[in-house]
Amino acid sequence: xxxxLIKDNxxxxxxxxxxxxxxxxxxxxxxxxxxxxxxxxxxxxxxxSGSGKSTFLTAVGLITPPTSGRITIKGxxxxxxxxxxxxxRSFRRKNIGFIFQKSNLIPFLSAVENIQIAMExxxxxxxxxxxxxxxxxxxxxxxxxxxxxxxxxxxxxxQRIAVARAIANxxxxxxxxxxxxxxxxxxxxxxxxxxxxxxxxxxxxVIVVTHDHRALDVFDxxxxxxxxxxxxxxxxxxxxH
Length: 241
Ligand SMILES: Nc1ncnc2c1ncn2[C@@H]1O[C@H](COP(=O)(O)OP(=O)(O)O)[C@@H](O)[C@H]1O
Ligand SMILES: [Mg+2]
What we know:
By secondary structure, this protein is an alpha/beta fold. It is built from 7 helices and 11 strands. The chain has a 6-stranded mixed sheet with strand order 7-8-9-3-10-11, sandwiched between helices. The chain has a 5-stranded antiparallel sheet with strand order 2-1-4-5-6, covered by helices on one side. It binds adenosine-5'-diphosphate (ADP) and magnesium ion. Adenosine-5'-diphosphate binds near residues 29, 52 and 54. Keywords: ATP-binding, Hydrolase, Lipoprotein, Nucleotide-binding, Transport. Its EC number is 3.6.3.-. GO terms for molecular function: ATP binding; ATP hydrolysis activity; transmembrane transporter activity.
């Protein structure tokens, strides 16, 4: 990977504000939140419940538009306030991978089929999708689980399949909302390490919302949110490169 690639921003979120409701039901969930994530950078976003983390992530993921502020993905301005500058569905499918607290795997499809389907929906042939799905399972250490239904897998294995599905279409951005909340410390850490591996090896920009302070050393950068305000943790407490 070239240095230039590493320097480019995968995500630029500038001054995002989100107001839910109106008048006396008004909630300012996020105010002027700004975060830039480089290609190949893995960022943790911390903060108490209700501080606006999911609001930020769903805005950056082009799911719920901000009231104001700009979102630039891989150099393209896609969202300015409530105005979108792309077909969001196809832009999301090609550029953004999501991982949630629960893996949300389709229960009647095998592990490999769950990964495959993401690529088939993106126009990939069944054969190519299957071969890449198997390759990804190998990469993420769950190759031996290919033919199992999700119910046969542990929580940690299910999250690995969810990670494989999220990276299958080679997105430039991965967004994970408390992906390890349902896992024990050891398995949670293993999943966090996967995010760092994907960021560093594939050049993906990754944001992980987490309450888990035990695995923070795997992240390049740490942001915190409180009452809708975002701040980057000062440099001296960040991981040294
Ligand atoms: N759809 C919604 N309508 C109204 N208020 C909401 C909505 N979603 C979130 N909020 C409020 O916005 C604030 C931030 O919520 P959220 O982004 O979910 O925080 P976090 O993910 O940090 O727990 C909270 O006060 C929450 O109640
Ligand atoms: Mg949340």
